Amino acid sequence: MATQDLSSVYTEIGIPHLFMITDSNGTAIHLIGQAEIIDKACGNNVNMGTSFAFEYAGINGISLAMQLHSTVVVQGVQHTMRFFKDWNCICSPVRTIDEEIIGYIDLSFSTDVDVTFAVPLLKKMIEKLERKLKKSRESINKEAAYLLFKPYNLSNREREVAFGWLQNKSVLQMAHLMGITEGTVRNMLKKVYAKTGVRDKGQFFKKFLT
After folding, report:
1. Taking every annotated instance into account, which residue ranges of this chain make up the domain HTH luxR-type (predicted)?
2. Of 25, 77, 100, 160, whose CB is crowded by the most CB atoms within 10 A?
């Protein structure tokens, strides 16, 4: 979902730039931009699977947004990573309807470009994405979800937990509905993550809602 929206915007921005989509832990799950920029980024260890959390990548737009839980701007020399020294980066969290952060979107472009154009652009894109996430969660039905889960050999209880997670129910809500403890729900979520090959809620939503 996010990649489709960003890809459409990518063609409209008339300057060299790079979009990075990460999960809630700051790990890149998608890069969008001109081929030469992505090639250069990959050559500098900026790729899918790269962690931009502070402990791994120091100061950057994503790590700062993770710390402040808000939209941030990091300019040129403020970056720790050498690749971004010539880039301005603006990054914003993506939230669910319950204000839980499920990922981040970062827009990077040359330090020669005025950063003010990017703030309203990214804000508009985030708002559009969050509306789509809300709509997709409201519209998903149990039968369709269970078909998506079928290849992963989830148990009946694990499917219930996975479906509740897609509906954005909390662990406490699911525990009450299913008549089990919160600890049991969390253990089943870990099994669901392991079987479906995801590490966190952001990746889980991306896998089954896009």
Report:
1. 147-210
2. 160
Fold of 140-209: Arc Repressor Mutant, subunit A (1.10.10)
Residue 47: both structure tokens together: 């790729």
Residue corresponding to tokens 């499917």: 159
Does residue 10 or residue 76 have the better pLDDT?
76
- How far apart CA 210 and CA 208 sit, in angstroms, is 6
Dig out the tokens for 201 from the structure. 């809620």
Domain positions in the chain are 2-137, 140-209
Give the model confidence (pLDDT) of 11-55 as tens digits.
456 677 888 888 888 999 888 888 888 898 888 888 888 999 999
Determine the 3-state secondary structure of 21 from DSSP.
strand
Hey, how many other C-beta atoms are within 10 angstroms of the C-beta on 51? 16
Closest CA to 137 of 201, 69, 78: 201
**Locate tokens 């392991």: which residue?**
194
CB neighbours of residue 202 within 10 Å: 23
What span, in angstroms and rounded, lies between the C-alpha atoms of 41 and 47? 7
